[in-house]
Amino acid sequence: MSTRKRLGLYAGMALSVLAASCGQQLTNSTAGNGEGKTIQAEVAAEKPGAYLFTYFTGNSKDEEAIRFALSNDGYTYRALNGNKPVINSADISSTGGVRDPHILRGADGKTFYMVVTDMVSANGWSSNRAMVLLKSTDLVNWTSSVVNIQEQFPDQEDLLRVWAPQTIYDPEARKYMIYFSMKHGEDPDKIYYAYANDDFTALETTPKQLFYSPTNSAAIDGDIIYKDGKYHLFFKTEGEGAGIKIATSDKLTEGYELQDKYVQQTKDPVEGSGVFKLNNSDEYILMYDVYTKGKYQFTKSKDLQNFTVIDEEVRMNFHPRHGTVLPITSEEAARLMRKWGSTDDIIMSAKAPALKKINISLDTAGKRLTLPVKPGTSLTSFDPAFITFPGVTITPTSAQNFTTGPVKYTVQIQGQEPQTYDVVAREYHNPALEGFYADPDIIYSEKTGKFYIYPTSDGFTGWSGTYFKTFSSEDLVNWKDEGVILDLNKDVSWADRNAWAPTIIEKKMNGEYKYFYYFTAAQKIGVAVADNPTGPFVDSGKPLIDAFPKGVTGGQQIDPDVFTDPKTSKSYLYWGNGYMAGAELNEDMISLKPGTTKVMTPDATFREGANVLYRNGTYYFMWSEDDTRSENYRVRYGTSDSPLGKIKVPESNLVIAKDPAAGIYATGHHSVIQIPGKEEWYIVYHRFNYPNGINMGSAAGYNREVSIDKLEFNPDGSIKQVKPTHEGVKGVNLKKAGMN
Predict the structure, then answer these.
(1) In terms of Cα–Cα distance, which of 295, 69, 289 is closest to 164?
(2) What does the alpha-carbon distance between residue 326 and residue 136 come to, in Å, rounded to a whole number?
(3) Contact (Cβ atoms closer than 8 angstroms) between residue 371 and residue 426
(4) pLDDT tens digits for 548-592?
(5) Cα(113)–Cα(104) distance, integer angstroms
(6) Region of residue 464 (left: phi > 0; alpha: psi -120 to 50; beta: else)
(7) What is the largest CA-CA distance in the chain?
(8) H or E stretch including 161?
(9) pLDDT of residue 738
(10) Closest C-alpha to 207, from 159, 170, 245, 174
(11) Residues belonging to the active site
């Protein structure tokens, strides 16, 4: 039998007296009646002015819980309660965890219904038989009931799982219909429905099949929205093809006809689609969980047929999994802020375009906020543009002068004590690139007179990125995103995963410049060629390196580095994880010279990321030590008399390492650039995202950012240890140096 438990403390806040219908249908709260008519929900007199996003965050037990976030516009979301659960999963579930939360405003306008999967993924993907039903009148205090399908209904002996329940109001039955997927025995997952009882504590009808895939593949994660007289059922299909499709019907419980096309706008696996209508707009948002990349994608549509990606417009300070968005009123948003809002979060919400948003840092104890701004930003009159939700005020409201010291800001959340912060705005050049990137390789192009950085596209769970970009600069400070130059899914036939750690070289051949781009894909090394540093690059059609060198039995064929010996003009390729190998390249630059491959591992500190440079007759071999997920990831070096010679390792050979006092960690996988014609060197490396990386656990290893600092040598040729900085480099003037 289901159980019912009372959650939370009574907040002392009842909803305002309901007025008559305001004439605006709330998305997902009402539906057509089968004859194409609509029933208007009774809502508060105030129209929806905000959005509530409910979600969970991952597959560990502490992540399988209900979380809330707020948005004013449907695009920028801030987590409530510090991104911690708003309901304790152990109090409401039979397994100790819940997933896939769906929230609905009732047809009366004042009652809220939430349903979740009762499941802990650690027990297996076919381990749960139940869902949880929750009910609230204020979005803060919730009652709950566990509904175990196998225990409550007969003929469910072979039931393996119950997934992703959602709720919709059926105006014909005048009841709340819950629909969900179930898998029995060897059959594929199918979508079923049943009606909840009046108290929303149990199912009062036996689950009945609502929809199954005509191809007999799985159908899960259903989401129904009513538009233009039809019910649109979004669902995920698996098996023969996988992705999100739509089936439509004039009736809620039958007659769904499949539209035979996928509507997700990515080739990556997706699940958990959620559709909502933007307030005061004819546009809809379709969002879904790109779960293999640790990303959420947002798309926009007016007709629920054609969808445009709007990821660049969406901002979240959390990483959601399979959730839903509900339009709410300003009064409801203010109530949520009183309960779970934080002045620290408000002061961290600055969104001015000139800010390096992922690098904003707050000293919570000292109430001091540091806002890093992009190069060239005027700080004499600067507005951080803090986000304020209903029930929140922040002063001052106008632009301020940050050049004379910290500016005091006071944040007030209704029902809480006001808090005052010292806010500092400062120009920082590190990270050099905006966003998550790693493994940077840098060149100076004689053809264009510009610098180019070629990084790994980062920020993807498990290093699962599939494309490469490049960035150009004339001064090492201001970098332009030149876009994607190689996409594994489009441009490479032999690999479609793990686009990592590229390296590039400019060669003048027969009077023309050529660019040879060596990259890692699927733990193999390929090469692509272009006539310009920004491409287009054309892959050779096969991997250049896909096997261990002789004598090596462990590690990976990754992390190439290309180097041309200025003494001989011969070019060499170096690579390896767990070992270091080198070989001479043929004159075509896309093949290795037979018989030249040599294992060159310098010592036990070598992990990966070899980089070679030449200075004053000495060949410097540099590499990364430890794991990129470790805060102790760092760079060491050795020297040799030739490009493939024995490497001598100095006793003191640390090039760059973490600086905990500055909050800089995992400084590694680098490259080095010399300003042509000058004794001026710079090291380009990646580090954990600042300031959040050090608190992310192993995920910090794929949420990295690129930085640049000066590299200097001692009179005896040894390398001075580099101190990593936030300030970065001041920049170089190529024109003044006579390089253009």
Answers:
(1) 289
(2) 14
(3) yes
(4) 999 999 999 999 999 999 999 999 999 999 999 999 999 999 999
(5) 5
(6) alpha
(7) 88
(8) strand 159-170
(9) 52
(10) 159
(11) 439, 608
- What is the C-alpha separation between 700 and 397, in angstroms, rounded? 35
One-letter identity of residue 113: Y
Sheet containing 130-136: order of strands: 4-6, 143-148, 130-136, 112-118, 98-105
* Spans in the chain with pLDDT lower than 50: 1-45
- Give percent of the chain above pLDDT 90: 89
Left, alpha or beta for 365 (phi > 0: left; psi -120 to 50: alpha)? Answer: alpha
- With vertex at residue 148, the alpha carbon angle to CA 144 and CA 150, rounded to the nearest 5 degrees, is 170
Q: Which two tokens stand for residue 291?
A: 């779960």
- The three-point CA angle 396-399-401 to 5° equals 100
Q: What's the rounded Cα separation, in Å, for the pair 59 and 28? A: 27
Cβ-count burial 363-395 (b if 16+ within 10 Å, e if not): eeeebebbbbbbeebebeebebebbbbbbbebe
Q: What domains sit in the chain, N to C, each tagged with a CATH number?
A: 25-340 (2.115.10.20), 354-427 (2.60.40.2340), 437-711 (2.115.10.20)
| Number of Cβ within a 10 Å radius of residue 419 | 16
- Cis previous bond, 396, omega within 30: yes
Query: C-alpha angle with apex 594: 591 to 596, nearest 5 degrees?
Result: 105
- Residues 175, 172: Cα–Cα separation, whole Å: 8
Give strand pairing partners of 738: none
All residues at 6 or more sequence positions from 224 whose CB lies less than 8 Å from its CB, including other chains: 166, 168, 179, 231, 232, 233, 234, 252
**Burial group, residue 20, by CB count within 10 angstroms (0-12, 13-18, 19+):** exposed
Residue 545, CB-side half-sphere exposure with 13 Å CA sphere: 27
| Residue 458: per-residue pLDDT | 97
What pLDDT does 31 receive? 40
107: left (phi over 0), alpha (psi -120 to 50) or beta: alpha
Concatenated DSSP letters for 407-420? EEEEEEETTS--EE
Please report, in angstroms and rounded to a whole number, the separation of the first and last CA atoms in the chain.
79
- Residue 583, phi then psi, degrees to nearest 5: -155, 155
Q: Closest Cα partner for 708 from 453, 376, 373?
A: 453
Rounded Cα distance, 442 and 286, in Å:
38
pLDDT of residue 29: 38
Number of helices (H) and strands (E), helices first, in the chain? 5, 46
Q: Which of 378, 351, 348 is nearest to 363 (CA)?
A: 348
Residue 419 token pair:
């808090």
Which residues is 504 bridged to in the sheet?
517
